[in-house]
Design a protein that fits this description.
2 helices, alpha+beta, 63 residues, Alpha-Beta Plaits, two-stranded antiparallel sheet
């Protein structure tokens, strides 16, 4: 699974980082970003929680 953060929608609330710290980070621009190229299997559930919990739907799965 690959994810990306739409920076135009991100409000830097930190919900994604709280749900999946190993997958998401707050970057130098103050907005969320994805730490990993491919989400490891053991982190997929946390990553999906972050995707579903994003208040602005800024997290998208890359197909």
């Amino acid at each position: 699974m690959k994810l990306k953060v739409n920076k135009d929608l991100c409000i830097a609330c930190g919900a994604c980082q709280a749900a999946a710290y190993e997958v998401f980070e707050i970057e130098d621009d103050g907005l969320a970003g994805v730490r990993v190229e491919e989400v490891p299997e053991e982190l997929v559930e946390d990553a999906l929680d972050a995707l579903e919990g994003c208040p602005t739907d800024a997290i998208e799965e890359v197909k």
